[in-house]
Amino acid sequence: MATITRWAEERPATDDERLELLADLDESGLSVEEFARSAQLSPGTIRSWRRRLTRDFREAQSPDFVELRVRDDDSAASHTELVGEIVIAGGVTVCVRAGFDEHELARLLSTARRSC
Questions:
Q1: Are 41 and 73 in contact (CB under 8 A)?
Q2: What H or E segment, with its residue span, contains residue 9?
Q3: Which of 3, 35, 42, 82 has the fewest C-beta atoms lying within 10 Å of its C-beta?
Q4: Strand 82-88 to 92-97 pairing
């Protein structure tokens, strides 16, 4: 209970402090409403912080740069057949060749979409 009353005396001002508060909430086992009441905060404020910080964390985990590997071996020659082109916002065209890795392509398209 001491960690909860801390927040009643000292409102979180930074994202690091808000993350601490959210950790305290999780450790308390209380509902958002119960915790908020004890901390003298609005449940909506706590939920808003959780949503925003979760979104910010997810965005930080998504790379702005996707590394593509280029093959040096002879098998690369068999992957020269063009199987399609994908044009995304901003006029970016991605040429898809036979033998493409669908997971790498998905990562590339996700990154390209965010940057356009």
A1: no
A2: helix 2-9
A3: 82
A4: antiparallel
